[in-house]
Design brief:
GO terms for molecular function: amine transmembrane transporter activity; carnitine transmembrane transporter activity. This protein has helices at 2-30, 36-39, 52-63, 75-87, 102-105, 132-135, 137-145, 150-161, 167-177, 179-183, 206-221, 233-242, 258-264; strands spanning 43-45, 69-71, 94-98, 108-110, 122-129, 197-202, 225-230, 247-253, 268-285. It is α/β, with parallel strands linked by helices and 298 residues long. Strands 3, 4, 5, 6, 7, 8 and 9 form a 7-stranded mixed sheet that branches. The longest helix has 29 residues, at 2-30.
Length: 298
């Protein structure tokens, strides 16, 4: 009887030990233990296919020999995935850019890019179709004068994405609060010209939603009827090159949209930067313990 009891006790103890061992292993995996790739689930969360940052990320995957899948989504879906991961303290790597309101809301960092795949600091330029200066000289001069700081853009983005304001409402609020800056963009004594309606194209990045809506309402102050058209990057550049759009204020140069710009540069007027200090790259929450794109291979 004692032998049977001892055998049963040993068998029970063995079962508990096995459960503890395998339970810990499972728990560790659930907690994100393992290789860096496993922690990131082998995925880079991207935005709309065809965007300049997506092309750069495809190049980065090749240059750094990354065994990762680049997941197409949208700007909004990327931020939603980032938010969900941060709330659960999970590892996530996304295609990111600044200015962007997500850097004001969460502690994030760019992964170092030693091979320079994503380029250096960028600017966002204003591009006008040929002939706009003659057709709408007041609009052309306003677009040429348009220039603001990353903090200005981020204020509009925060109102839209965090305070849940409509883009038009957020743009009008910023204009009211920055009348001195806006006055510098508005030409005096310049005739409107024969063009009554201005069509602006833009990509649906949070940054470009903010800038394009602000420009829309300043142009409306000059008496123009303004139409906005959200399209992907390729369509935006094809449209401005063909004259289907009168202007864009969403040209990320010289890297992100550089290929697109080269195809149309002789067909458009480059009015120069409307914002400087922009950047793109791979972004992770600050609690992620790697610091370089090269570390993704660990």
């Amino acid at each position: 009887m004692f032998r049977q009891y001892r055998a049963l006790t040993l068998a029970t103890l063995l079962v508990f030990l096995m459960a503890a061992v395998f339970g810990c292993t499972t728990g560790e995996k659930e907690a994100g233990q393992g290789t860096v790739k496993e922690k990131f689930n082998g995925e880079i969360i991207g935005i709309e296919p065809g965007a300049g940052i997506m092309k750069a990320t495809e190049k980065a995957i090749k240059e750094y020999s990354l065994d990762y899948t680049l997941k197409d989504s949208s700007s909004a879906a990327m931020v939603a995935a980032l938010k969900s991961a941060i709330e659960s303290k999970k590892w996530i790597v996304v295609t990111g850019w600044t200015p962007h309101w997500m850097f004001a809301r969460w502690d994030l960092k760019y992964l170092e890019d030693p091979k320079g795949v994503y380029g250096g600091e960028e600017h966002i330029a204003t591009i006008a179709r040929k002939g706009l200066q003659k057709d709408a000289p007041a609009a052309y001069q306003m677009l040429d004068a348009f220039y603001w700081q990353p903090s200005d853009m981020e204020a509009v983005m925060l109102d839209i994405n965090v305070n849940k304001m409509d883009p038009d409402e957020a743009a009008q609020k910023w204009i009211r609060e920055n009348e001195d800056k806006v006055k510098k963009w508005i030409p005096e004594g310049v005739p409107k010209g024969n063009l009554k309606k201005i069509k602006l194209g833009y990509v649906e990045w949070d940054s470009e939603i903010a800038s394009t809506h602000v420009v829309k309402h300043v142009l409306m102050k000059l008496g123009y009827d303004v139409e906005l058209k959200a399209v992907d990057a390729g369509v935006m550049w094809t449209g401005i090159g063909a004259g289907h759009f009168d202007a864009i204020v969403a040209a990320w140069l010289p890297y992100t949209h550089g290929d697109y710009y080269q195809q149309v540069k002789d067909k458009v007027d480059n009015l120069g930067p409307n914002l400087e200090g922009a950047k793109i790259g791979l972004v992770v929450p600050d609690y992620v313990t790697i610091n370089s794109i090269e570390d993704l291979n660990k």
